[in-house]
Amino acid sequence: MNAFLIPDLLLLLTPFLVIAIRIFTRNSKPAFIFANLSFLVIFVFLNRLVLGDEPHIFFSTWKVDRFGVLMREILILGAFLGVWFAKDYFDHRADHKSKLTQMAEYIAALMFATFGGFAVLSATELLTLFLGLEIATVPMYALTAWNKTDPNGSEAGTKFILMGSVATAFELFGLSYLYGFAGTLELSLIADAVAQNMHSPLLWISVLFLICGIGFKLTLFPFYTWAPDVYDGAPTPTTAVLSVTSKLVAVIFLMVLIFGPFAAIHSELIPFLSLLAAITLFVGNLGALKQNRLRRFMAYSSISQAGYILIALIGPESLARGAVAYYFVVYTIANYLAFFIFGVIGRNRSETFESLRGLSKQSPVLAVALAVAAFSLAGIPPLAGFLGKFFLFYSAAEAKGYALILFAVLNNVIALYYYIQLIKAAWVDEPETEPEPLAITLRQKVVIIVLMIGTLTIGVLPFLNTNIFRIVG
Amino acid sequence: MLETLLYNSIWILPLLTTLLCVPIPREKEKLIKNVHLFSGFLVLGIAVYLTIQLYFLSLASPVQGSVSVLRFVTELPWLQAINAHYFIGADGLSMLMVLLTAVVVFTGMLVSLNIGKGSKEFFALIQILGTSIYGVFMSFDLVLFFIFYEMEAVCMYLMIAGWGSGKKDYGGKKLTLTLALGSAMILAVFFGIHVESGIHSWNILELAQVKLPETFQMWAFPILFMGFAVSGSLFPFHFWSPDGHSAAPTAVSMLAAGVMMKMGTYGILRIAIYLMPEGARFALPYLVYLTIFNVVLAAFIAVRHKDLKYITAYSSISHLGLIFLGIAALTPVSLRGAALQMLSHGFLTALFFAAVGMIYSRTHTRNILEMGGLMKQIPFIGVAFVIAGFAGLGLPGFSGFIAEITIFIGSFENTSPVFRLITILAVLSITTTAIYILQTANRMLNGALPGRFAAITDAGPGEKTVLVLLILCLLGLGLFPAPVSDFLDSSLAPILENLKR
Fold this sequence. Notes:
The structure holds two protein chains of two kinds. Chain A is about 75% helix and about 0% strand. Chain A is mainly α. Chain A is globular, with a radius of gyration of 21 Å. Chain B is mainly alpha-helical. Chain B has one domain.
């Protein structure tokens, strides 16, 4: 039986159903509920899949293995949180912009982007890989420009689509060189060809183009410049999705290549990856220092996070996979926790640092949650983010990348500085004028509490990371 | 078995108390404070009981070889993916540090009873801070150690920024970020130790039996040493401490200077030197030059300062320099002296900052030029301050004397002329200490009383308890140093044994 295909098929089907339901109902509420239910069903299916050590392959083009299932679950988690977060922006105005419309279509686009991630995970040959990445990216262009009344959103969308197309061209170029080099699209056959002829110029040109292309999507130096503008101009839920789902898909794409076709030249790629990682996290950290707008701040923060994630990729495959999977769980949780808090604050105010002032008096729980999110993103123990970063470094330590680790942990001090700025705004700074009252819905309350407890506990309790490393190792 | 449970509860109890207090509404301040005080007292009681137990246990069976003998051991698999364990245990050094922490946490709570706004959060943070410091001294697994070690810096920021005075955000950030810099260096080297050891273990006792590659030790030891030295405020990483202390509320100053700054020197003894003795022998003769700044120059800086907290902070830096001198000399006597000084200075500086905090809360100024004649108004606090000053000067009878003399003898035993020269300089610097202590006490306590201080009152019962308790600790350590020295020797023996290999 091909039971392992069910979750993928379900996810491919649900966006159409979500839109169909919207057509036949008066408002988008049934579509929202249906989307949540289907996320739940897909997640349960993924969880119930029993896979052996060998990957299951469907007609030699669609591969499902245990690591793939794990990453699918994380993608579903991200999409689910994204939909819940987006709901509020369709219900009321926020950040002094008009409210968003057409929620069902928004959800459907988000699901397609998630399905793109599934496709990248399942790829056994270059075409599926490329298609997956595009399916994950194209909906994001639309999501960025979703607020048609906001000129900043349109500007961000235009920037994103222009930059993204250039990146796509780079990727295609790289992939076609790779095809020209190996004479096949099959990833496993390419890996053999690479192992036999490691120093072919054709191969290295392809590597160069591919790294450039994925550098755009993963916001690596020097291709990160679009990110602050796009993150800032896009509607806030899109920013959250961009910083979690898009990033995850790009990392998976890079991992498929590095530990697949390029496995033989992995050790020779290490200097380049180290350099990219180091510069990326450094510029991300520097950029975040002096930001005032929260979304722009999160953009730089996520650029530096991309640098940290890249560090894990210099380690051996099993450790890198486990580290990236665990990191994305904690990063998703902490990032959405921060965004949910920004969402609550941005309802009647602008999404800036000034709006955070006086939060500790207005709502101590929110202020504590913000501190938890910020410290987790900064990687302070015993919060989950610390262990996430620890695993990333652990993977690199296995490859003896001590200098890179030292550089990264020293950079963490800069990161701690700007995350402390968030906490300072909420806890220390006094508001200049009487702040607007906060309005918080029950859904937001539940999510914030759950995410906060998650961030506090999964870094200390061993269950999640032990399981993740057992699955990938 | 009971002892093991009690030992674990030392760091768990504070956390449980914090959780217990979450549902209590913040209006019931008195109840919250009493719950926290009770838990602090309970932990102190447990620590005293266990110290006595451990003392007799360690007398019964002396340590042999380079393996530390731990008691009250709990070892459970924790993060199996990286082979990290929940591994805590006690030997003489860690037990005494835990006891010191318990005393300072309890007295810190007592002086914070009138903290005012947000006392619920403040006491919760003190407890979490306490947990992290206990954890550092108790854990013998590098991952566990690091988690506790890094936790404390963040609590410090929240407490200083929230409840401090003066440039609190600046001081808090400076402190936290500099400490984070130190932890960053430590973390990087821990990864190196884990991988280079070849046994993929984080267990300090196991790692101590492995000889790490010497080329690795040559660069890793200085980085690890400096990482730890940040929290011990060794030059050139001392700059966080005066600003941090002066901005911090009293309890935080007490905890920071009293115990947190000892975490660095503890880490050097327990981890850096124990695991990398070859690197230590190679690098410490160079690193010892840094202590000249601490011991000699910091004392001169203290002479010029007019702010009570800055004076105390620089005095701390100067005394901590002696610990570093003792460690760097690497003789059995000097290491014992360093360990004694860690304890002695912990009590001493806690007493200092407690007295300073009490004076500041009454006069609302820390400038000694604006004070005068306070002895008439607040004799109890005044006498406590003078006692702290004399103990810091090294008056025989108090712990400072015995600790400093041991360090001096020990470091003079090191035959290198550099160490002898620095020892002589350090002995001479006591004169400078006398200058700033006497001049501060004189300006503050004698002379005419400014009219605006006419209404201030002497210490209340809680404050008196704090001062008396800390003075008793100083006296106890100073009058009966022999048992404590034996106790410390039993845990320093394995480290010295490793140094000989």
